[in-house]
Design a protein that fits this description.
335 residues, alpha/beta, Rossmann fold, 16 helices
Length: 335
């Protein structure tokens, strides 16, 4: 995969930031935008004012509202839709996807109902084999990536040759990609950390300090590792960029939507109030129910994700969550 054309389906915050990475790595990038006016602004003014105002996009980035045009000639198609909308979008996109293109998921979630990871949704809808499906994960807050602040991530695919070629295609002066064949571990780390970040944000919103937040992060990582190992993930993956790295960034940064969403819940706002104020639902609030069901399916202890799901559903308050975690029976840390 020498540098060539890449299609990015989704012109939101992360899709736009990753388009900058791809262009800086030498690729010609065509973004697909749901709204025609957004596509026009990206192409003509080289800016996505809605998500990254003031950031000039590289001249090799353009956009279109026509998905067939976006993917024409692309050997890599990057999928950057909201995780719970991926299946419906893919049904519409699938007839136009090049049959030999590698499909790269930027999404971090587990589908409600099916409990499929995003790579599984891609395989189900498109029929692509595992050697054509890759994921990108890691501590990648989109605003910092768009500003070209130094960062690293993980590119994962079960095919070692494919993942090494993808690594070269996304290696820019500011973004250092590492390779992995552990798709399961990378996807679970990315999905679970959003829910843990909600809990960390709640702790901050309640006025608690760094000890509490560190406890939430660490116990959240333990839950992630339990589920990941039960599903065949390499535990070392969850200690790396796609696990601990992503978890720390998302739980610690005010740029994190999930951390900010949780903080507002901790201050006493309802989910409906937060959505009305921010005009968006954090990914962790969408995926906590599916992750809870996934952990239940695999008979893995999951007190943190269960409590977060109860808060999002209105069955508990943020303070109830903290009390519930402290009141659990004591045990060995390694249990």
């Amino acid at each position: 995969m020498s540098a060539g054309k890449v299609a990015v389906l989704g012109a939101g915050s992360w899709g736009t930031a990753f388009s900058i990475v791809l262009a800086d790595a030498g690729n010609e990038v065509t973004m697909w935008a749901r709204r025609e006016e957004v596509a026009r602004t990206i192409t003509e003014e080289h800016e996505n004012r809605e998500y990254h105002p003031g950031i000039e996009l590289p001249p090799t980035v353009s956009a279109t509202h026509d998905v067939e045009r976006a993917v024409d000639g692309a050997d890599i198609v990057v999928l950057a839709a909201p995780s719970q909308a991926l299946r419906s979008n893919l049904v519409a996109w699938a007839p136009f996807l090049p049959t030999d293109a590698v499909l790269v998921s930027l999404m971090k979630g587990v589908e409600l109902g099916t409990l499929d990871r995003m790579s599984e949704v891609i395989a189900d809808v498109t029929g692509a084999g595992p050697n054509r499906i890759a994921v990108v994960s890691g501590p990648n807050l989109s605003a910092e990536i768009a500003r070209r602040e130094p960062a690293a991530g993980v590119v994962a695919c079960v095919d070692e040759d494919v993942v090494q070629r993808l690594q070269a295609r996304v290696h820019s002066p500011a973004f250092r990609p590492y390779t992995s064949t552990d798709v399961v571990g990378c996807e679970l780390g990315g999905a679970y950390k959003n829910v843990v970040a909600l809990a960390a944000g709640m702790a901050v919103g309640l006025g608690f300090g760094d000890n509490t937040v560190a406890t939430v992060i660490t116990r959240g990582l333990a839950e992630t590792a339990r589920l990941g190992m039960r599903m065949g993930a390499n535990p070392i993956t969850l200690m790396g960029l796609a696990g601990l790295g992503d978890l720390v960034a998302t739980c610690s940064s005010p740029l994190s939507r999930n951390r900010t969403f949780g903080e507002k819940l901790g201050k006493g706002m309802s989910v409906e109030d937060v959505v009305a104020e921010t005009r968006q639902v954090a990914e962790g609030a969408k995926s906590c129910a599916s992750l809870r069901a996934l952990a239940t399916r695999h008979e893995v202890d999951h007190p943190l994700v269960a409590a977060v799901d109860d808060v999002v559903a209105g069955r508990l308050t943020a303070l109830d969550l903290m009390d519930a975690m402290l009141e659990r029976p004591t045990k060995s840390e390694l249990d």
